[in-house]
Design a protein that fits this description.
Two copies of one chain form a homodimer. The longest helix of chain A is centred in the first third of the chain and has 14 residues, at about 5-15. The first copy, chain A, has helices spanning about 5-15, 65-75, 100-105, 160-175, 180-185, 190-205, 210-220, and strands spanning about 25-35, 35-45, 50, 55, 80-90, 120-130, 145-150, 190, 220-225, 240. Chain A is α+β, with helices and mostly antiparallel strands. In chain A, the strands form two sheets. In chain A, strands 1, 2, 3, 4, 5, 6 and 7 form a seven-stranded mixed sheet that branches. The interface of A and B includes residues 64, 87 and 90 of A. Chain A binds a DNA duplex through helix 7.
DNA sequence: CCAAAAGTGTTAGGGATACACCCATGG
DNA sequence: CCATGGGTGTATCCCTAACACTTTTGG
């Protein structure tokens, strides 16, 4: 079976499945961090010059949150990832530019006119925080291109996915939690400078080096490890690691 | 037509309507404030000893947020109300205790077995902030009892509505905004003490009288009006009013 | 020894907290 | 004139911002 034929088969199975909750979908804004830049992971539709946030549908007998995790896994092979619901998008016209329809036409897959894929649907938006260095493997069952984009250099996006990314980022900024964000977006070991650059990328503003260090250390959520020698002619920075919740010592309880 | 027959008619029309988005609903946690207590507005199902948060369905050609406002109006005759989405509830088992089914049985309305009302559905949760003193008029088209409940004395609730109320309250606490909450939950004019009691009810903890006053006044979002004489033998408190956004003078820009 | 970057110290200011005091009101 | 509750003043603490200084590293 050729690649194209396989894709067609997968797509056909998808729209003919009766087990999905109709008129409802899930979309997942995946944030990563690399070289001082905040990134989102996007997929490109086959044969179309449009990108989108990874999404999927909900089985009739599946919890919404489970469907989000499954969708994320199927589209990116990521599991055990920080995942949080942030907003449900329900404007009537949000799916007007119906990419799915074009896709089906391209592949000559016939779908009845009143099939729900042609109608409006409402999408529950999730965001995920993933370690950029771990996300090198992606499936190609839909033969979409999968790529990280800098948050400030997004390509043309399908539906209302641009708004989704913006709203997801705002949510991230507003509900900023040092431990959750740092421990999910950075590799296991990191320098203070890397951690600082992460927060600067998310907040979109510079922070003072020494004050940032003091503040984050006072939270007692980091463990200082060995020094990291880069070979450059300056003092070597320490590496740090986020403590597990069980390791965290709150000074208030230390007597 | 008797009351009961009318109710039956309404219910019948509801389930036979083809224009709703299937498997999806809206629920609205309505917060009010009265006599130093935070309240929620609940409806009682006819013939059942179960209460619920006002809810409704979404028309196929209707924006999600518009549907929430319409639902709120239909159930409570409230309009121009502060309304905000906070979470979408999608566990498979959340509607297992199917109140709708019992209701239909009670009224002897036959619905086909595979009608969506019998299946799982996902509900988008909104919360509303309303002035308790304005909410004296309610429709009775479903002949439900409509009543305010103290947040700490909730009756038995249908589905996962207890969880909804809790989650809505948490959202309110976390994203507390003095202006939005105060100006929607209090009448137009109020004393500083009333405002303080409102925040104490929401936060669930006592605040210091004088510090609270200083803090809220420093925000420059209040206008001091005439004194309010209660007849008691003590200094009369001022009345205050929230400024419109256009009236607010930010000290940073005053030169 | 020097430049570059990391780590630590030190001071000033703003906001929150806790306490105290004065003022208006009606009996 | 007194009890009561409302309004304002003030000292303290703590967190943060801003700046300065010391330490480490490889050339």
């Amino acid at each position: 079976m050729t690649e194209n034929a396989k894709n067609k088969q997968n797509l056909k199975e998808l729209v003919e499945t009766k087990d999905f909750v109709e008129h409802l979908s899930i979309d997942c804004v995946i944030f990563g961090f690399h070289k001082d830049k905040l990134k989102v992971l996007l997929l490109k539709y086959h044969d179309l010059d449009l990108w989108c946030v990874p999404g999927g549908f909900i089985f009739n007998d599946e919890n919404l949150n489970d469907a989000a995790a499954r969708t994320l896994y199927e589209r990116t092979h990521l599991s055990n990832v920080y995942l949080e619901q942030f907003y449900t998008f329900g404007d009537v016209r949000r799916t007007e530019n119906n990419v799915h329809q074009k896709l089906l036409e391209n592949k000559n897959i016939a779908v009845e006119e009143n099939h729900w894929i042609h109608q409006r649907y409402i999408s529950v938006g999730y965001f995920a925080l993933v370690d950029y260095t771990l996300t090198y493997t992606f499936p190609d069952s839909f033969n979409e291109v999968c790529r990280w984009f800098d948050i400030s250099e997004l390509p043309e996006l399908a539906f209302d996915h641009k708004e989704m990314i913006e709203k997801g980022l705002l949510h991230l900024r507003k509900n900023i939690d040092y431990q959750v964000m740092g421990s999910n977006l950075l590799p296991d070991k990191f320098t203070m400078k890397e951690l600082q650059h992460l927060y600067e990328a998310i907040l979109g503003e510079p922070l003072r080096r020494n004050n940032f260090q003091r503040k984050i250390l006072s939270l007692n959520i980091l463990e200082r490890l060995e020094k990291h020698f880069t070979g450059s002619a300056n003092k070597a920075p320490y590496l740090y690691r986020f403590l597990d919740n069980s390791e965290i010592k709150n000074l208030d309880f230390d007597k």
